[in-house]
Amino acid sequence: MAIDPECLAAELGTRLLERGEVLATAESCTGGWVSQVITAIAGSSNWFDCGFVTYSNTAKAEMLGVSKKTIVRDGAVSEPVVIEMAGGALQRSRAQWALAISGVAGPAGGTPEKPVGTVCFAWAGPDGFAEAETCHFPGDREAVRRASVEHALRGLLSRLPPMLA
Questions:
Q1: In this structure, CATH architecture of domain 5-159
Q2: Which of 63, 101, 159, 163 has the greatest number of C-beta atoms within 10 Å?
C-alpha cells in the first residue's frame, strides 16, 4: 500500500525530534527527491541537516568519500557503495542518521545482474549502526524513483523506534 512520502517524512521528523537527532541523505537515482519531500515540511530544518546528490561515481567519491575501489569492484548500484555513501553523509554533516540510495531507474542502464528497477539502500546511525538492502521495483522511471523514496523513508522509520514515554 502506497503512502504519501510527505506523510512518511513527517512521521520520521516527529521521531527524530523526539530523540533530538538529525538526518542527512545521500541520493543518486532519486536525484534529491527524498530531500525535497523532507524540506516540503515546515520546520524540517530542526531535524534535517543536508542532502547530497551524488549521481556520478566521481561525485560519490569526492563528496562522500566512497572508495573508487569499491565502485569498481561492486558497481555504483551495490550495497557496499550505499553503505559508504551513508557513512560519508554522516561524516560530512552534523547528522546522527543517514540514508543512501543508488539504483537503476531506467529505462536504460540495466544489466542481467542488475536490471532496471534494482535499487540499493543503506541506513546508518549512532554507534556504528549500518544496514543495507537491495530491492527490485516494477514500473517506469517515475515509478521506480517514487518507490525508492518511499522505501528509504519506511526503512529508516523501521530502524528508528519511537521514544518510550
A1: Alpha-Beta Complex (3.90)
A2: 101
